[in-house]
C-alpha cells in the first residue's frame, strides 16, 4: 500500500542571487530512505528576500510580492524574508512541524513531508522509523501513535516490553536488545539460555 510522497529535503537559504545548501552535507535530496517517492528539489525550503527593488520575487512564476500568500496562515506576506517549501510560500514563523511545532525554516533543519504532514526529522523518524513498521509486532505505526525508539528500531508504546516476562519498561530500566527482542535486566541470562545464545 503506497503512503504517498515522503522523504527528506535540504534547506536552502537564498538572498540576492546567492544560494548555499545548509542541510546535511553530501545528502542527496532525491534519495528516499523509506523506499517511497522523494520530494523533488523544488520542494526544498528556500529563504527569499522581499525587497521593493527586486520585482518580481519569483523569477520562474513572475509573482509580484503583493500577491504572495502564506501557505500556513493564508495571509499576505509582507515580511522582508520568507520561505518557499512544498511549492508554497510561508512566513518564517508559519512553517513549522505539524506535531511538535518547531520552526522548520531555521538553519540546519530539514523538512519531511509525508501523508500531508510537515514534520521535523525527530518526529518523522519517531513516526515512520526505517520503514514505518513496529519492530516487535510488524504492524504499521500510524502517525498519531506514540512510539519508542532503540537504535534503528521503532516500537509501538504497548509493544515496548520484555520479550520474556512481558513487563513494560519504565524510565531508567535497563534492557538488552537482541535482534528485535527487548529483554529486561532480570531475564537476560534466562532468555539467552533458552534461545541457544549461551
Gist?
This protein is mainly β and 198 residues long.
Task: Give your account of this protein's structure.
- The chain has 198 residues and is mainly beta.
- It has a domain at 8-128: Cysteine Rich Protein (Ribbon).
- It contains two helices and twelve strands.
- The strands form four sheets. Strands 3-2-4-5-6 form a five-stranded mixed sheet, with no helix packed on it. A three-stranded antiparallel sheet has the order 1-7-8.
- The radius of gyration is 22 Å and the shape is rod-shaped.
- One of its GO terms (cellular component) is transcription regulator complex.
- It is found in: Nucleus.
- Residues 68-130, 132-194 form the LIM zinc-binding domain.
- This is Rhombotin-2.
- Its main location: nucleus.
Amino acid at each position: 500500500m503506497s503512503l504517498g510522497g515522503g522523504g527528506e529535503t535540504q534547506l536552502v537559504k537564498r538572498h540576492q542571487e546567492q544560494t548555499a545548501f545548509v542541510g546535511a552535507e553530501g545528502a542527496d535530496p532525491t534519495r528516499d530512505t523509506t523506499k517511497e517517492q522523494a520530494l523533488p528539489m523544488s520542494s526544498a525550503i528556500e529563504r527569499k528576500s522581499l525587497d521593493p527593488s527586486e520585482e518580481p520575487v519569483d523569477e520562474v512564476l513572475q509573482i509580484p510580492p503583493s500577491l504572495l500568500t502564506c501557505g500556513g496562515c493564508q495571509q499576505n506576506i509582507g515580511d522582508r524574508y520568507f520561505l518557499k517549501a512544498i511549492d508554497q510560500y510561508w512566513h518564517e514563523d508559519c512553517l513549522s512541524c505539524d506535531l511538535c511545532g518547531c520552526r522548520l525554516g531555521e538553519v540546519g533543519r530539514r523538512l519531511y513531508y509525508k501523508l500531508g504532514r510537515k514534520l521535523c526529522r525527530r518526529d518523522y523518524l519517531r513516526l515512520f522509523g526505517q520503514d514505518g513498521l513496529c519492530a516487535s509486532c510488524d504492524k504499521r505505526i500510524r502517525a498519531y501513535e506514540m512510539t519508542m525508539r532503540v537504535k534503528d528500531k521503532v516500537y509501538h508504546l504497548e509493544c515496548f516490553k520484555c520479550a520474556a516476562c512481558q513487563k513494560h519498561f519504565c524510565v531508567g530500566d535497563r534492557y538488552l536488545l537482541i535482534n528485535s527482542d527487548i529483554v529486561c535486566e532480570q531475564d537476560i541470562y534466562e532468555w539467552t539460555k533458552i534461545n541457544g545464545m549461551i
